[in-house]
Amino acid sequence: MKWEVHEGEHGVVTLVLSLKMQVSISDEPETLYKRLSLLVKGHDKAVLDSYEYFAVLAAKELGISVEKVHKPPKKIERLTLLKSVHIYKKHRVQYEMRTHYMCLELKYLTSSTAAVYLEYVQRNLPEGVAMEVKKTKIEKIPEHIQEPVWDTLPQVEETEVKS
Amino acid sequence: MLFSHAPPRTEKMAVDQDWSSVYPTAAAFKPASVPLPIRMGYPVKRGVPPPKEGNLELIKIPNFLHLTPPAIKKHCAALKDFCTEWPSALDSDEKCEQHFPIEIETVDYVSAGTSIRNPKARVVTLRVKLSNLNLDDHAKKKLIKLVGDRYCKDTDMLTITTDRCPLRRQNYDYSIHLLTVLYHESWKTEMWESEKTEEDMEEYIWENSCSQKNALDTLLRIKASENVSNVTEEELLASEVVKNYRNSVIALKNEGETENNVSQYKESVKKLLNIQALP
Questions:
Q1: Among A32, A60, A117, A153, which is most buried by a count of CB atoms within 10 Å?
Q2: Which intervals hold domain Small ribosomal subunit protein mS35 mitochondrial conserved (chain B) (predicted)?
Q3: What pTM was computed for the model?
C-alpha cells in the first residue's frame, strides 16, 4: 500500500492510495478440475448474450480452454389468475415468466485458476441473473483402497468371533 | 434564480479517452456520461423510441459499460499472476483417467435472494471406473451385486451420490467411506456364497451345465450304437467338435442372438452330429 501520483483527464493530478495484491505461494498440491460447467439463468436474453461475451473473453485472456458454449432452450412458466378481487370468474389474467439459459463448459483448470476465474466472473454477475457451477474434481485412489485389508490383519481367534 | 445548466460531460470527452476511468465499476446508466446516441423504449405513434435523457428503461436494464474488451483485458492481466498452469502431461481425458481415476462432482449455486445458502449445494457425486480398482473376478461380481443400480455396464462406471449429511465435506467423506467399505466387503468371501445357484450367475458357464451333459450323453450313445470301444468323457471334451460347440453355445448365451452367432452354432451342431448339408 502506498501513495501514487495519478494524472487524470484535463490535467487534473490526484494522489491515489494503491493496493497492489500480494501473490502468495503455498506448498500443498493443487486440486485439479477436469471440467467446470457454468449454467447462467436470466430473464433477459440480451443480458445473457453480453455476459457470454464477457465470460468467454475472460477465459481466453486467463488461458483457460473453453470446450463449448451452448444455449439450452428457454423455459416459460405461465400462471392464470383471476382478474378481479371478488367474483367475475370468467375474466382472468395470464402472466408468464421466461427463463433463458446459457451454458459455458471449461476444461482443465487448477484450483487457483478456477478460484480466480470464478471470483472474477461471479463478482461481475449482473443483477437478476443466477448461476450454477458444476465442478468435476479428479483424484487419485486413496491409499486404503489400494489393497484389501484382510491380508494384513492379524488372525482373529474363533472364540472371539463367536462371542 | 435561474442557473444555466452546465453542458453534459459527453461534449468534453475525447474520442480516444480511457473509458475504464469513466465506468470503472458497475454503475447505473448516466445519460450525461455516455456519449452514445441511444434510444430505447416503445416508440411514440409514427415516431421513434424515446431518447436517452430521463429514460427509465436504460437505467433499469443491467449494463456492461464497465466491462468493455480493453477493461476485461486489463483486469485479466492483473489477475494472471494468481493463476497456475494445468500440468502439461495431462492433456487428454484418457491420461487424466489413468492417473486420477476418481471423479468428484459438486455444484455451487449463486443467486440473489434473502439468503445465499442453497440446500442443493451439499450433494456430492463420486464416479469411478471399476477397471481402475484392484479387484479380482469374484470381488468385481460381488461389488456389482452389492451396488445394484449404481453401476452402469456399458461405461463400467460406478456412481455414488450422497446427500444425507448437512455439509458438503461430510458428504464427501461419507462417499469415500462407502467406497472403502464396498471394496473391502467385496474381497471377503462369506460361507453362504458357496450356495450360489445357476440363476445367480452373471454369465453363462458351460462346464457342469445341462448343455454339456446333453452333448456328452448324445455323443456317448452315438458311439455305443456304432459299437466303438468305450471313449472316455475327457477325450470327448478335448475333441475339436465339442470345443467348437461349447464356444458357439457360450457366445449365443452371453452375447445374444446375432447372425454370426447363430450360423456358428449351426455349423458346430452339424459337425458334432455328422449331418451333411441337405442338397
A1: A117
A2: 116-188
A3: 0.79
Count of A–B CB contacts within 8 Å? 144
Band of pLDDT at residue A15, cut at 50, 70 and 90:
low
A positions 120-139 inside 8 Å of B (CB)? 120, 122, 124-139
The fold of the A30-139 domain, in CATH, is: Alpha-Beta Plaits (3.30.70)
Domain residue ranges in chain A? 30-139
Cell of A61: 485472456
Neighboring chain A residues of B90 at a CB cutoff of 8 Å: 32, 108
CA distance B228 to chain A (A): 54
**Model pLDDT for residues B27-77, shown as the tens digit of each residue:** 899 998 898 898 999 998 999 999 998 899 999 999 899 999 999 999 999
Between positions 6 and 25 of B, the ones with CB within 8 A of A are 12, 17, 21
Tens-place pLDDT, residues B73-119: 999 999 998 888 888 888 888 888 888 888 899 999 988 888 888 89
ipTM over 0.95: no
Closest to B128 measured CA to CA, from B146, B104, B162: B104
